[in-house]
Amino acid sequence: MDKDILNKIDKLKKERNAVILSHFYQRPEIQDIADFIGDSLELSRKAAETDANVVVFCGVHFMAETASILSPDKMVLLPNIGAGCPMAEMADYDGLLKLKEQHPDAYVVSYVNTTAEVKALSDICCTSANAVKVVNTIPKEKEVIFVPDKNLGRYVEKMTGRNMIIWQGYCNTHNKLSRLEVELTKERYPEAVILAHPECREDVLDIADGVFSTSGMIKFVKESNAREFIICTEDGILHQLQKKYPDKKFILPSNKLVCPNMKKTKIEDVLESLENLRPEVKVPDDIRRKAIIPIKRMLDVK
Ligand code: 13P
Ligand code: SF4
């Protein structure tokens, strides 16, 4: 790691009163310079709480948007503006509006992996960490529209025992992992515990020993006596797992588990964004005022 870049980032961070937030899927060197690393739920809470003037969000676009919605007075920077989330783009404003017209009484639950416009049409948001809890707050007789992830939606249906109208979006990275790949890995490591993110396909989740958000996995490993884990999520999380638990073994069941968008942000982008205070992500006020309601409702779910 270039010490000069690190020193410059550190100096600028102080001058700008900036905080660096990183998702677990970011490159190891980004995770290592972050003030806080977390899953999407923790990062949105952190963005809302911080008293920094500038939030450098090392993640993807919808995460920076969520931070901007929660903290309109802060400057939210997304160091590489090309870092989007293909799943978030799969749910569009007009399509959701049409679906709502067909089901006028339905309650709309949107995964945080959505655009601000889609959030503005939603009743409550959720993340992978709280989706089951969120849906359980909705009265049983209410129809539920769930956007955009079909795999998370199906998992929530199973856990809550209710039927929902599920958008057919998916994560290009998690959806590629096949059950066979996990089974073959398990044959090589028969003692390993299988942990899966709920964006994985249903047949993968069926053979998992635990289904968790990224921080949920880290917490599980901390509390488990097992020595080996098959990790069914994006490879960035292995950096934290190996750092925190060097005596345990973590195995990725496939080399496809890399989110190209999460890997777009490089350390040089972080430096440039602190130097130039851009690219900034700012949600227009008319959308922000609507989108903040479902996000706040989600944050109130304990
Ligand atoms: P988490 O909510 O578990 O952090 O996941 C976010 C995400 O984008 C998963 O692909
Ligand atoms: Fe989006 Fe999947 Fe990448 Fe997460 S891992 S940011 S859901 S594309």
Give the helix/strand layout.
Blueprint: H1 3-16, E1 18-23, H2 28-33, E2 36-38, H3 40-49, E3 54-58, H4 61-70, E4 75-77, H5 86-89, H6 93-102, E5 107-111, H7 116-120, E6 124-126, H8 131-136, E7 144-147, H9 150-160, E8 165-166, H10 179-188, E9 193-196, H11 202-206, E10 210-211, H12 214-223, E11 228-232, H13 237-244, E12 249-251, H14 267-276, H15 285-300
Parallel strand pairs: 1-2, 1-3, 3-4, 5-6, 5-7, 7-8, 9-10, 9-11, 11-12
The structure holds 1,3-dihydroxyacetonephosphate and iron/sulfur cluster.
Describe this structure in words.
The chain has 302 residues and is an alpha/beta fold. The protein has 3 domains: 3-84 and 262-282, NadA-like (Rossmann fold); 87-171 and 289-300, 3-Layer(aba) Sandwich (Rossmann fold), CATH 3.40.50.10800; 174-251, Rossmann fold, CATH 3.40.50. 45% of the residues lie in helices and 15% in strands. It has 15 helices and 12 strands. The protein has helices spanning 3-16, 28-33, 40-49, 61-70, 86-89, 93-102, 116-120, 131-136, 150-160, 179-188, 202-206, 214-223, 237-244, 267-276, 285-300, and strands spanning 18-23, 36-38, 54-58, 75-77, 107-111, 124-126, 144-147, 165-166, 193-196, 210-211, 228-232, 249-251. Strands 2-1-3-4 form a 4-stranded parallel sheet, with helices on both faces. It has a 4-stranded parallel sheet with strand order 6-5-7-8. Helix 3 (40-49) runs parallel beside helix 4 and helix 4 crosses helix 15. The termini are far apart. The model has no long low-confidence stretch (mean pLDDT 96). The structure holds 1,3-dihydroxyacetonephosphate (13P) and iron/sulfur cluster. The site of iron/sulfur cluster has 14 residues, from helix 5.
